[in-house]
């Protein structure tokens, strides 16, 4: 069953599908498959939590090692052989040997990176679904709506529920790309590929001082339009914008050259990765003029954020895994609404407590070889959720 309506540039229709309510054996089969997925997720959580702690501690020790060895250079314009192979710290303006070009639009810039971003005006499908039970059947009502938007990726309209009237081109006539300067320096030092990759603070390039490159291309604001009427684009029209990162040299329109702070190993006139005795690689680049302490503080903060993010991901994986593995108990009683709801709450509480305890225990094992005292304290803390859960259970009456 479908209903159609047209609201200006936004079109929508509703589609209702129905299927028989699955029987007990079907639900049990689905639950069994979910248990297998839950077991895999549960085991992966252990691996994620355990390896994350070792990685975090190894990175912290590597940063401490680097801080104790790093040497700040007096000048970035002279290369001292005394620092050969050592971890060095320097700050200065970026410079490149040649400008980056986009001849198709008559554009050039002295920068580390130049990115051309191409967008096409296309139909986009949105859907909003809801399920309900009626006459012993499960019905799904889906509202499909269509709108025209600028998108940097081709939207495949063949996957739409209703392609008629919402057909998109299969490809763009102009492609996006990113050009990178082959030689990037700070003073007399050449940056490695890894350091160049870290220069990613892209800013949109103003096109106000440029003319229309072709008769079929119109500049409007900071975009080049492949359109007969940029104010009222049609499906298939293109617009192109440009972004740059790491401005090299002073530019009358863009300002002064970008300054960066680098910590890496000196090898001749090159700055390359430094390998610590803990197995990590130190290769740091930050915008601005920063001291050694500021750079390493930022690295420690980044390591802490990554550690907590992976801890949260590990706990969530364990919680989901336990929930899927215990879902079978919910399936066995889902014919009885009151009992079903109570069991569902109990299973969620069980998964929460067990996931928290096992996560803390796994983290403590990961710390065992690095910080034994903290590992012992975490192991004791891991028992708290289960003890709290047991304390809420009323004691048995004395016989």
Automatic annotation (TrEMBL):
The keyword Mitochondrion does not apply. Keywords: Endoplasmic reticulum, Membrane, Nucleus, Transmembrane, Transmembrane helix. GO terms for biological process: lipid metabolic process; nuclear membrane organization. One of its GO terms (cellular component) is endoplasmic reticulum membrane. Pfam families: TMEM43. It is a multi-pass membrane protein. The chain crosses the membrane at residues 32-50, 308-329, 374-393. InterPro entries: TMEM43_fam. It is found in: Endomembrane system; Endoplasmic reticulum membrane; Nucleus envelope. Belongs to the TMEM43 family. This is TMM43 protein.
């Amino acid at each position: 069953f479908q209903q159609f309506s047209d609201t200006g540039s936004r079109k929508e229709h509703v589609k209702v599908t129905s299927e028989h309510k699955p029987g007990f054996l079907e639900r049990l089969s689905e639950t069994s498959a979910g248990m297998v997925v839950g077991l895999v997720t549960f085991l992966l959580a252990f691996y994620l939590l355990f390896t994350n702690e070792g990685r975090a501690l190894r990175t912290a020790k590597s940063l401490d090692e680097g801080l104790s060895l790093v040497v700040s250079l007096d000048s970035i314009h002279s290369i001292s052989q005394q620092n050969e192979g050592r971890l060095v710290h320097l700050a200065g303006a970026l410079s490149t040997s040649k400008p980056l070009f986009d001849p198709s639009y008559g554009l050039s810039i002295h920068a580390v990176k130049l990115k051309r971003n191409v967008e096409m005006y296309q139909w986009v499908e949105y859907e909003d679904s809801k399920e309900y039970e009626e006459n012993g059947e499960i019905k799904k009502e889906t509202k499909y709506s269509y709108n025209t938007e600028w998108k940097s990726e081709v939207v495949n309209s063949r996957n739409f529920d209703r392609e008629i009237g919402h057909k998109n081109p299969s490809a763009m006539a102009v492609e996006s790309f990113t050009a990178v300067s082959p030689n990037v320096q700070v003073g007399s030092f050449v940056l490695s590929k890894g350091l160049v990759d870290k220069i990613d603070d892209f800013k949109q390039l103003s096109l106000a001082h440029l003319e229309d490159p072709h008769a079929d291309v119109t500049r409007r604001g900071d975009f080049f339009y492949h359109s007969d009427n940029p104010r009222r684009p049609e499906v298939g029209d293109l617009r192109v914008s440009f972004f740059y990162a790491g401005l090299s040299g002073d530019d009358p329109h863009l300002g002064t050259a970008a300054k960066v702070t680098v910590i890496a190993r000196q090898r001749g006139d090159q700055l390359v990765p430094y390998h610590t005795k803990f197995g990590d690689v130190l290769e740091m680049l930050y915008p601005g003029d920063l001291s050694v302490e500021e750079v390493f503080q930022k690295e420690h903060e980044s390591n802490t954020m990554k550690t907590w993010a992976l801890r949260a991901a590990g706990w969530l994986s364990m919680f989901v895994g336990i929930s899927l593995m215990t879902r079978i108990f919910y399936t066995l009683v889902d014919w009885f609404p009151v009992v079903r709801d109570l069991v569902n709450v109990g299973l969620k509480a069980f998964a929460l407590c067990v996931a928290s305890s096992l996560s803390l225990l796994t983290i403590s094992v990961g710390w065992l070889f690095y910080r034994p005292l903290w590992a012992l304290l975490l192991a004791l803390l891991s028992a708290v959720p289960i003890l709290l859960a047991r304390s809420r259970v009323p004691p048995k009456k004395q016989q």
